[in-house]
Specification:
The protein has about 500 residues and is an alpha/beta fold. Helices cover about 45% and strands about 10% of the residues. The longest helix is centred in the middle third of the chain and has 25 residues.
Length: about 500
């Protein structure tokens, strides 16, 4: 009997009554929900963030006509679809606080469309007039923006395909455009396209990508989309580690057999521009903020948190420090982080209502140091091509323009160059961790002899390669890292007057 008592409950809606009492479960059934949102990219962040806010509304008896239909456009998304459909799209969220662990099960997602090569199922779902919001978490690098210009890249092979074959789109944006074409032609209304990715001006970037691709397909359709659809900007924030065997084991230890549980910190923030052409859930009733100052909030978050992540992660990878919390516990890495944040990032961030940049640094330090969050340096360092371009280099450019200090920011770039060599200081290998990994490794190898070879990656650095205020300290820091080691470089920066 004791063995049966300790057996985790298979996660399905019809088994929720068997879940341990201390785990919260939905107060609503799937039969009470109807779809209103299609979400493309149903990874951990979405399920711990947007889907959670909607779940909280549903728990209060609201927004039950806004249920989520999951979707994906990559072949790998089919694996997530299979996992979620097997458990009727419910998810175990495990909150990791320094004070302890708690869990709840959310049920705001009710279906997941098939992942087709031509995205026909996704298009058909979005073309249904019941769908009023299409939201996305497709990563910072998934918007077909040329990092060297910050503009839409019309020559990307995926974009060229969708422009030539609009009824068989390869991208999420091509699928959105085709669904909107079908809705327009049927005399039905538009939907809101809502980015939930960590991008400054994520709504503006989404609008530009959609409209730019639409103009390659059908100018009249592009004009219709521009006139009728909305693309709200938002700032999203919650640290959500990747799921692996430990997270699955943690759910089982709590009494739930979940193939795709999500762990997250005990903090969430969602700041949204109130621009929804076809209505929206009242997310503000459960903690979201609707404001016309989204850019100020997102600048604070992206520069202090997201750029701050890059300050930590590259040094941590080279020094074999496994998690972000471990980086904060490392005396040299954490001292480096604090000085870069306060001396070289905070001066380029404006306050928002109720929060100064200095106070936000203190908040982020507490969150990063949470030992219960096993957020790996590898996850945070992933896709540095997008993250350095989007998070770190805009601060560097602002600092150069104003004559402010830049030594620490340039050391961050030198640490990334060192990381991309593909080895740690203890000799262990760093597995490929960027869509452009072979090119980054080649540039890193060349930079050992000629540091300028790293900065000549024009798709990342643009004209910064020509600025001696960048190239000279970069060469000095990279030489220090290779000759004296990462810790010596960090100490030299921290101890400099």
């Amino acid at each position: 009997m004791d063995e049966l008592k300790n057996t985790p409950v298979p996660l399905r809606r019809d088994r929720l009554s068997e879940v341990p009492a201390e785990i919260g479960t939905p107060d609503y059934s799937a039969s009470e929900l109807t779809p209103g949102i299609v979400h493309i990219g149903t990874g951990n962040f979405h399920r711990a963030h947007q889907a959670w806010y909607l779940h909280r509304l549903m728990q209060d008896g609201q927004a039950r006509d806004w249920a989520i239909v999951g979707a994906g456009v990559r072949p790998g998304d089919a694996a997530m679809r299979e996992k979620l459909l097997a458990q009727e799209c419910v998810t175990t969220l495990i909150e990791l606080s320094p004070e302890g662990t708690s869990a709840e099960i959310t049920g705001s997602m009710i279906d997941f469309v098939p992942v087709d090569e031509d995205n026909a199922s996704l298009v058909a779902c979005m073309a249904d007039p019941a769908i009023r919001i299409v939201s996305l978490t497709v990563t910072e690098g998934g918007y077909y923006v040329d990092p060297s210009t910050g503009k839409f890249d019309p020559d990307h092979p995926d974009i060229l395909h969708d422009a030539a074959h609009p009824s068989e789109p390869r991208t999420a944006f091509g699928a959105i455009i085709e669904a909107l074409r079908q809705r327009r032609d049927a005399g039905q209304g538009p939907f809101t396209v809502q980015s939930c990715d960590n991008l400054r001006g994520n709504g503006d970037i989404t609008r530009d990508t959609v409209l730019s691709l639409a103009r390659l397909i059908d100018k009249d359709l592009a004009d219709w989309i521009e006139a009728h659809c909305t693309f709200p900007n938002s700032m999203v924030d919650c640290i959500v580690p990747a799921t692996g065997p430990d997270e699955i084991a943690a759910a089982r230890a709590l009494g739930v057999d979940d193939a795709a549980p999500v762990t997250h910190e005990n903090f969430r923030q969602w700041v949204i521009e109130d621009s929804f052409c076809a209505g929206r859930p009242d997310w503000d009733r459960v903690g979201a903020t609707f404001t016309d100052r989204v850019h100020d909030y997102e600048t604070m978050k992206i520069r202090i948190l997201n750029a701050g992540h890059q300050v930590l992660a590259n040094a941590g990878e080279v020094l074999s420090v496994p998690t972000i919390a471990d980086c904060m516990a490392h005396p040299d890495i954490s001292a480096f982080w604090r000085k870069v944040e306060r001396d070289e990032i905070v001066p380029h961030v404006d306050p928002v209502p109720g929060m100064t940049p200095e106070d936000y640094v203190t908040l982020i330090e507490e969150r990063f140091a949470n030992p219960a969050i096993r957020d790996t340096t590898r996850r945070v360092a992933f896709d540095g091509s997008s993250r350095h371009s989007g998070f770190v280099l805009p601060i560097l450019r602002d600092a150069l323009a104003s004559g402010a200090p830049v030594e620490g920011l340039i050391l961050v770039e030198a640490l990334w160059a060192r990381m991309c060599h593909g080895t740690r200081e203890d000799g262990s290998e760093i597995a490929p961790n960027d869509p452009n990994w072979p090119a980054l490794m080649a540039a890193s190898a060349a930079a050992r002899e000629d540091p300028q070879a790293w900065l000549e990656q024009r798709g990342i650095y643009g004209d910064l390669a020509e600025d001696r205020r960048v190239s000279e300290p970069f060469a000095r820091w990279l030489e220090t890292i290779w000759q004296q080691g990462t810790e010596a470089a960090l100490r030299a920066y921290v101890n400099a007057r």
